[in-house]
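Figure 6 in text form: structure in, sequence out.
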């Protein structure tokens, strides 16, 4: 009987150790996944190094279209309407918070009467200027042209480029927080 009692005690102790180890392992994994999400957000927000062609393209046109200390949004007429509307709604809310003078929209639509009418209706609440697609680059990823935001500093140079993801508005809002911080520094 003493052997049976000893085996039961050993089994209970081992069971408790397994449960405690499992709980600690689970806590450890959840803490590291939160840390990974923060690193991922930071990478998305500061992705200018991923888009040097946008910078080169902007350098060629900044004398004509450039504004200093502004956030601009660039998109094409073939952009997904739901995506574009979502991004414009987020931008409008942000513009109301920081001021219209800090936001410009640079669509790339054909230069015809219908496009001018459409743009004046869609973008009436924004500062905007239609810029030809071949003047200011719109990057293509997996066969689709991607809309993007870019912050232009006081010297007229792009510091931040951000390609929004409609499925994760949280990233866009974090990007806007960084832009807001920069605007507050210049005020």
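Output sequence:
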């Amino acid at each position: 009987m003493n052997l049976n009692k000893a085996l039961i005690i050993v089994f209970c102790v081992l069971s408790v150790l397994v449960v405690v180890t499992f709980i600690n392992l689970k806590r450890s994994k959840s803490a590291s996944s939160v840390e990974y999400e923060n690193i991922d957000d930071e990478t998305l927000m500061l992705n200018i190094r991923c888009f040097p062609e946008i910078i080169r393209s902007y350098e060629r046109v900044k004398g004509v279209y450039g504004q200093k200390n502004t956030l601009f949004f660039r998109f094409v007429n073939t952009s997904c309407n739901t995506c574009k509307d979502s991004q414009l709604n987020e931008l409008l809310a942000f513009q109301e918070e920081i001021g219209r003078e800090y936001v410009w929209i640079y669509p790339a639509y054909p230069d015809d009467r219908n496009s001018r009418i459409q743009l004046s209706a869609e973008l009436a609440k924004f500062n905007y200027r239609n810029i030809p697609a071949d003047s200011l680059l719109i990057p293509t990823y997996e066969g689709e042209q991607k809309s993007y935001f870019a912050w232009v500093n006081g010297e007229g140079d792009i510091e931040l480029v951000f390609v929004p993801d409609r499925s994760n508005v949280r990233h866009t809002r974090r990007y806007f927080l960084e832009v807001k911080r920069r605007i507050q520094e210049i005020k």
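Caption detail: Helices lie at 2-45, 52-65, 81-98, 113-122, 169-186.
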